[in-house]
Write a structure and sequence with these properties.
Elements: E1 2-13, E2 17-24, E3 28-40, E4 43-59, E5 68-115, E6 118-161, E7 165-174, E8 178-186, E9 189-190, E10 193-208, E11 214-223, E12 228-235, E13 238-239, E14 242-256
Parallel strand pairs: 1-4, 2-5, 3-5, 4-5, 5-6, 6-7, 6-8, 6-9, 6-10, 7-11, 8-12, 9-13, 10-14
Length: about 260
Amino acid sequence: AAAIGNSFSAELGGSANVTSYQWGNRDVSASMYLDASDTLGSIEATTAAIGNSASISIDAFEGDGGASRVSNTQIVSGAFHSNMTFDGSDISGVDDVAISATSASIANSLNVNARGDVNANNFQRFWGDSRSVLNAGFEDVAGSVEFTSAALGNSASFDVEEAGSVQINNTQYTNYDPQAFSNIEVGRLEGDFTSTTAAISNSLSVSTLPATASLAVNNRQMNRAYTGATANIHLGDVVGSASVTAAAIANSASISNLPDGF
């Protein structure tokens, strides 16, 4: 189940000049109730509430091989709520995987994948309510189980390959509260259990692998929001490992620009 306010997608060959502007002030909500029993096979379930989404893919080497330019602006207010309730029993997974379930709320999202030189400017502003809730209970399950509840304000990702020069200017503002909740009751489980509950106000990820000759990143992230992640997990009879994570992050920036061999 997915609800999206504004969505933009582009797949381009040759050097490109892409400008995207998205604005919204309406609420977006996605909800799912899933009751599974006596199931032979893996179960995958996702709910997502997204305000603005932009996905851009550029392969400059399919054309002239010149530099590409990307300009993205996303401004949004409103409530973005993703809610999932999962009840399960007597589930036998395939290839050691039984259940994979995700609830995600995202105000602004940009993903750029490119081959060749890139000059990009990203501006994202969010003031509203980003909230993800995942409630689950299950018993008599064979296979691994993974649950994720994620609430994001602004997210930008750049994955660039085979570039000689990359320049990225990133500005992100979050003014209100991303919050993620997980409430999970585990009965008998023969397999590994993983639960991740994460709330992030502003996130930037840049990867230029293998290393580009020239990389310049100007990053400005401002958070005036309360960011919260709450996980309530009860583990019963589990035969396998258990990993539980709850993380609340205001501003996050990750840059990878390493040569081959590292």
